[in-house]
Every structure is written in structure tokens, then in C-alpha cells.
Design a protein that fits this description.
The chain has 321 residues and is an alpha/beta fold. The protein folds into two domains: 3-95; 100-313, Vaccinia Virus protein VP39 (Rossmann fold, 3-Layer(aba) Sandwich). The chain has helices at 3-21, 30-43, 56-85, 101-118, 136-145, 158-168, 174-177, 208-221, 278-281, and strands at 125-129, 150-155, 178-182, 197-200, 227-232, 252-258, 267-273, 297-300, 310-313. Helix 1 (3-21) runs antiparallel to helix 2 (30-43) and helix 1 (3-21) crosses helix 3.
Length: 321
């Protein structure tokens, strides 16, 4: 992509931001759906654009756009969770009414594959931070891929947890393995030691500083050796979601960074909590830095759903202290 094409892309995104920001309401509607569909289509094609190098005015628009996307996504999930919760039989039998359900299936399968590459045993307890009213990742993983694992879903919004609980309460299996906690994850400490894997939703921590504080908190309280799964964004997709820079994962060993190039929007970062005791990490200036990758290679993605994505992996050579 040349500089002229990048300029045209940024101009298109800024025009869409201008139209989205003028909407009176971000609840699902014909106008809202159309504008966000146009935005996603503009951002999905693979692009070498580096959003961190854009001018300040565009950076400001990007920050505002991510927040608008977050609000719209929350309202969309709330809308469909309410509809699903109204079914008399098991609401989980009707998940395909959610317009992006297939994307969640693909993303969850990708994350499971990545997790399987770095996790020797099936995790017994998983935490999902920022699960929302429609916790599709937890539901998909628990239903199809991690069928003996218990899932602890954390969200700061009591109404979101109430709606989510309604979805699984009539399911004889998931109602016994999915739990919901209404709290700010920054107020959770000792309980984080209980999880083999912690997922951090893309929209938990909408700016770099907020995301960094949450990651540092997880680094301090997660069990040594536990895995952290984060969602990030790459190229033009960084206009939709915050970027997690692997360099900011202090206290973790970064294992892989995957950048899909198909309709799965989020990049996936997986890291392992440093095996040293927490007090050792806190000596000196802050937390221990992450172990940097020794090489970078581009590989063909593992592709169980045959959607043809290319994934960039940061290959970490084994390092001994």
C-alpha cells in the first residue's frame, strides 16, 4: 500500500467517524448497522499502516472511534442477549441469530489452537475479563473445545452479568461450569492465582495507559506459569480496537503474536506469567521486563475452518536463566 492509498484509507475512515459521531444513538438500527459495516469493511483488508505514526488529529479520531465502536458493540451484544434470553427453551440453541456468531467461532477456534500449542494440560479453571452480556468466547470454548473446564467470567456491569447468566442457566452442562463475578478486575487479587488461563477482552482498557495498568495488575497477581490471552489489532484494524504492544507485557514471556488477515478482526497475543515469584519481579525498577522474542517469522496459519488467513508468529526460542 503506497502513501496515497494510505491517505485515501485514513480519509475514508475519518469520514465514517464523522458520520458515526453524528448519530443520536448507537443502538442497533439500519443507519448504525450500515455505518459500522462500512467501517469494518474499510479496515479489514491487510494494510501496512502504522497507526502510531499518524498525525495527532488522526490519533485523536482513532481514540474516539475505538470508544464509539466499544459502545456500539456493547449495545449490540446487549440487544441480542435480551432477545436470546426471551426464548423459552435453551437460549444457547439460538446463538446463530447473532450476526457475528461465525466470527466468534473462528476466533475461539484460533485461540484454542494457540492455547493448545503452549498448554500441556487442559486448563481446569479459566478467567475471562470483560465477558459482557453475551459471553460468546466462554460459551463456545466451554461448549465445544474445553468441555471439562470451568469458566469464571468477570464484568463490572451487574446487568451484563445478569443477562449472561440467564443465557446459560437453563443449560444442564454450562450452568454448572460457568460463573459470573460482578467486579472491577483491579479489585481482584488472590483469586487470580486460581486460574490456569486468563483471557483479557479487547475492549477492557481502551487506551494504552489503562490497558497497561490492567496487564501490570494481572502480572502481579496471576499464578506463576499461567497463560494470558489478549486480543489486539494490526494495521487498519487498529482503528477498531486497541493495540497491545508485546513490549508492554512486563512480567510475562511473550509466546506468540498472531495477525489474521481474513474476517477475524482481532490479533491474538499469548504470554506466560514469569515463573519467578512475584516478589522477585517487584525488586528494582518495576516489574521484570518481558522476555523478548529472538526471531520473527511469518507462517501459514493453522486453519481448522479453512478461511485462508496468514498469521505472523513471534517465535520464542527457549531461554534459560
Amino acid at each position: 500500500m503506497g502513501s496515497q492509498e494510505e491517505e485515501m484509507l485514513v480519509q475514508k475512515i475519518c469520514e465514517l467517524y464523522d458520520n458515526i459521531s453524528k448519530l443520536e444513538c448507537l443502538e442497533p438500527s439500519k443507519d448504525v448497522d450500515l455505518l459500522f459495516t462500512q467501517l469494518v469493511r474499510a479496515c479489514i483488508p491487510p494494510s501496512p499502516i502504522d497507526v502510531s505514526k499518524l498525525c495527532k488529529s488522526v490519533q485523536d479520531i482513532r481514540s474516539k472511534l475505538i470508544r464509539l465502536c466499544g459502545q456500539a458493540e456493547g449495545l449490540l451484544e446487549n440487544h441480542f442477549s435480551t432477545i436470546l434470553g426471551s426464548y423459552d427453551d435453551n437460549p444457547l440453541h439460538h446463538l446463530n441469530i447473532f450476526p457475528y456468531y461465525s466470527n466468534y467461532l473462528q476466533l475461539s477456534h484460533l485461540e484454542f489452537t494457540l492455547l493448545s500449542n503452549h498448554c500441556i494440560h487442559v486448563p481446569s479453571r479459566v478467567a475471562f475479563v470483560g465477558s459482557g452480556p453475551l459471553p460468546l468466547t466462554s460459551i463456545v470454548l466451554a461448549s465445544y473445545l474445553l468441555r471439562t473446564t470451568s469458566f469464571h467470567n468477570y464484568d463490572i456491569d451487574p446487568s451484563a452479568n445478569s443477562k449472561a447468566l440467564r443465557l446459560v442457566s437453563s443449560d444442564p452442562d454450562l450452568s454448572q461450569r460457568m460463573f459470573f463475578h460482578t467486579t472491577d478486575i483491579m479489585n481482584v487479587s488472590s483469586s487470580l492465582q486460581d486460574y490456569d488461563v486468563v483471557f483479557l477482552a479487547a475492549l477492557v482498557g481502551l487506551d494504552k495507559d489503562e490497558k497497561g495498568r490492567i496487564i501490570d495488575h494481572l502480572a502481579k497477581h496471576m499464578a506463576p506459569g499461567a497463560l494470558l490471552m489478549l486480543r489486539s489489532a494490526h494495521g487498519a484494524r487498529a482503528f477498531l480496537y486497541p493495540v497491545v504492544d508485546p513490549c508492554h507485557l512486563r512480567g510475562f514471556e511473550v509466546l506468540s503474536v498472531f495477525h489474521p488477515t481474513d474476517e477475524v478482526i482481532n490479533s491474538v497475543v499469548i504470554a506466560r506469567k514469569h515463573p519467578k515469584p512475584t516478589h522477585a519481579l517487584e525488586q528494582g525498577l518495576g516489574l521484570s521486563p518481558m522476555i523478548l522474542p529472538s526471531k520473527c517469522s511469518e507462517i501459514q496459519a493453522f486453519n481448522p475452518l479453512n478461511h485462508g488467513s496468514m498469521i505472523e508468529e513471534l517465535a520464542i526460542e527457549e531461554q534459560h536463566s
